[in-house]
Amino acid sequence: MRAGYAVLAIVCFAMARPASAQSDTNFDCASSGAGRASPIVIATTLGETPAIVRIPAKISRSPIVLWHGFGPPANEQALMDALPLDDVPAVKVYLGLPMFGARALPGGMSELAHRQQQDLASLVFEPAVMGAANELSAVVRALEAHGCLKRGESIGLFGFSAGGAAALFALAERAVPINVAVTLNASTGLSASVKAYERATKGSYNWTDTARRLAQRSDAAGRAKDIVTGNPPPALLIVHGNDDAMLTPETANALHRTLLPLYQEANAPQRLQLTVVPAMAHAWTSTGNVEALRSSIAAWFHTYLSAAGTPG
Predict the structure, then answer these.
(1) Sequence-separated (6 or more) residues with CB below 8 Å from residue 84
(2) What is d(CA 252, CA 87) in angstroms, rounded to the nearest whole number?
(3) What's the rounded Cα separation, in Å, for the pair 83 and 12?
(4) How large is the angle between the packed helices 190-201 and 162-173, nearest 10 degrees?
(5) For residue 9, what pLDDT band results from cuts at 50, 70 and 90?
(6) Confidence category of residue 32, pLDDT binned at 50, 70, 90
(7) To 10 degrees, what angle do helices 108-120 and 190-201 make?
(8) Pairwise CA distance, residues 75 & 67, whole Å
(9) Quick check: is 298 in a domain?
(10) Is 226 within a domain?
(11) Residue 202: exposure state from Cβ atoms within 10 A (0-12, 13-18, ≥19)
(12) CATH number at residue 118
């Protein structure tokens, strides 16, 4: 793999729909899964965001919105295959990041790598990561229209890698009610992604005033007070692989150190947890920890995900 591509990992631009998926823009969560032995899977668009909606036969918890990363799993289907979370009785909504999957750039990976080399901040991170979080309000409105949640109901979030940065940014922006989130091998903002880029390319990023503003706005540690706002604050599980060479576990440790005193002040330290997984690399689906990882993520959502219909 060329150094210029390293921070993007192995990007899958072809958006293949799962064989069991139904293409449907008029589905209804309240009735679609009823009476079925297995979940129904619907390929759709929510607002302007490509999505796969996985609807269980029984729904008793609020929906979970999930974002993939720049590397495998690098689209909504791949993330659904890796993390179906069928033992959580909630609608799962797998969203495609801007510039990936069904919205891949003309020229594919070469064009994305070119943009990365031109300006990682404004041409890749801002549209793909911050852009994804900015789409969340429209996604939630669409889910309300499809009977997947009630107006004002809180949701759960999951994000891997760049999708984890989107989840942390969404927590800080607070545009929609979120009561529980899980990040996995997440970038904690533009600065962390730039460091990963510099490690991978052995080069130096040319910071601009615009990039510095984006870094400040997207920095999860810098916006810790925004993330912890709420009574109670959102239940946040930070999972990171000890062998992640792209986004080192120190990024997760640093974020946890910043957040913990604020959770303690809110009398909710149990709602923040850091799990560093031994022998797990950035590409977590290729390690031997997948089943245990799925179980721990499902357990966190079981513990903290709101009952369906609960206001945020």
Answers:
(1) 39, 54, 92
(2) 27
(3) 17
(4) 160
(5) very low
(6) confident
(7) 110
(8) 8
(9) yes
(10) yes
(11) exposed
(12) 3.40.50.1820
- DSSP lists the bridge partners of residue 159 as 67, 183
Q: In angstroms, rounded to a whole number, what is the distance separating the alpha carbons of residues 304 and 300?
A: 6
Phi, psi of 48 (to 5 degrees): -115, 15
pLDDT score recorded for residue 312: 80
Separation between Cα atoms, residue 237 and residue 103, nearest integer Å? 29
Nearest to 83 by CA among 6, 14, 157: 157
DSSP 88: S
Write out the DSSP string of 24-81: -SS--HHHHSTT-SS-EEEEEEETTEEEEEEE-SS--B--EEEE--SSSS-SHHHHHH
Cβ 105 vs Cβ 196: under 8 Å = no
Domain-located, residue 310: no
Q: What is the mean pLDDT of residues 247-268?
A: 98
211 is a domain residue? yes
In the three-class reduction of DSSP (H, G, I as helix; E, B as strand; rest coil), residue 18 is classed as coil
Q: Which residues contact 217 (CB under 8 A, 6 or more apart)?
A: 130, 223
**pLDDT tens readout for residues 13-31:** 333 334 457 888 889 998 8
Name the pTM for this structure.
0.93
- Number of separate domains in the chain: 1
Domain region containing 265: 3-12+19-304
Tokens matching residue 172: 């800080």
Say whether 201 sits in a helix, a strand or coil. helix
